Amino acid sequence: MASTVALILAGFVNVLAEVKQPGRLIFGYFLGWSNWDTAIIKYGIILLPIFLVVAWWLSFQCIPRARLGAEIEKLSGIWRKLADIFSLWSRHYSVFESKWLKPVLVTTVFLGLFAPLHSAVFLMNEHGVPVWNSPAAAILFFASAIAVAALAELVVIPALAWAVTATRPAAQTGHRITAAVALGVCLVTWYGWMWWLGRFGSIEELRAANLFMGPYGAEITWNWTVIGLLIPLVLLLLPTGRGYGAQWLAFLGATWGSYAARIGIVIGGEAINRSGAGYYTFHLNFGELWYTGVSVLLFLGILAALLAAMPRDAQSAPFSTAKKV
Fold first, then answer.
1. Most confident of 174-183, 261-270, 281-290
2. Phi, psi of 172 (to 5 degrees)
3. Residue whose C-alpha is closest to residue 268's, from 73, 108, 136, 103
4. Crossing angle between the packed helical segments 2-19 and 40-61, to the nearest 10 degrees
5. Angle at alpha carbon of residue 26, lines to 23 and 30, rounded to 5°
6. Kindly report the CA angle at 63 between 60 and 65, in degrees rounded to 5?
C-alpha cells in the first residue's frame, strides 16, 4: 500500500508538470459535466484521488493496532492529534475485523484495475488519432502493468519488507508465471496489432504501422521487444528465473519496456497527424524525459519517507510466511 501511495502521488506530479495548468484538474470536479458520460478523464480526476486515499488508509490499517497505538502514544500534544489525523484514526479500529472488509477489498481491486486502464481508455476516446482508437493499446497498457506488478511482488516488495522488518517473505512462484503470461500477451498483441494495421488498416493506420516498423522500428525493437519482452521472458521461463537476481533483471527490463511502449504509442499517435514527412522526425523531447525522471525520484523519496515512519518490529505479523504456489 505504501508503494501504491508513492506511485499515485508521483504520477499526479507528472501530470501537473506536463499540463502546466493544475487548475484544470480542480475545475474538472465541478465544471463541464454536461457530457460526463463520454469523458473518461473526469472519472480519473475523481477515482484516482479516491484510490490514493484508500491506499493511504490501508497502509496504516495493515499495521497492528497495538503497535500503531504504541507509536502514536509516544507523541505529545498536537503531534499526537496530527498523527491520528494522518493515519485516519487507524489505531482505534481495524477494517480487517469489521463487516466492511469485503466491500473495501472489492473497491480497492476495482480502483487498482481502473488505474492502468485509465490513460489507455482516454487515448481511445481522442478524436482524430486513428491509431489510438483501438482496444490494442488498452490491452498492452493493462497486460504490461500486470507483468510489472507481478515482478514487483517478486523482488521489490520482499526488498521493502526486509528494509522494514529485517525479514523476507517466502518466494511465490505464481507471480513469476503471471508475469510471463502477461509479457506473452504483450508480445502477441503488439505484433498482431502491427500485422492487422499493415493489412487491414485505414490510410492513417497504415502510416502508423510504417512509422512503428520503419523510422521508429529500431527504438521500439530494442527498448520494447528486446529489453521489455524477450529478455524478461527468457529470464523467467528458464530455470534461472527462480533466482532473485534474474527476477530483478526481468523486473527492470519489463518496467523499462512498459514505459517505452507507452511513450512509443503516444508519440506515434501525435506524429502521424503532422503533415508530409514531418512525422518521421518527431521524437520525444528532453522535457518529457525530465518530468519522468523527477517523478521517479519523487516516488522513491515518498516511499522512503513512508517506510521510515513505519514500526520495524511487528509489520510482518498479519501476513503468513508459508510458501505459496
1. 174-183
2. -120, 110
3. 136
4. 150
5. 125
6. 100
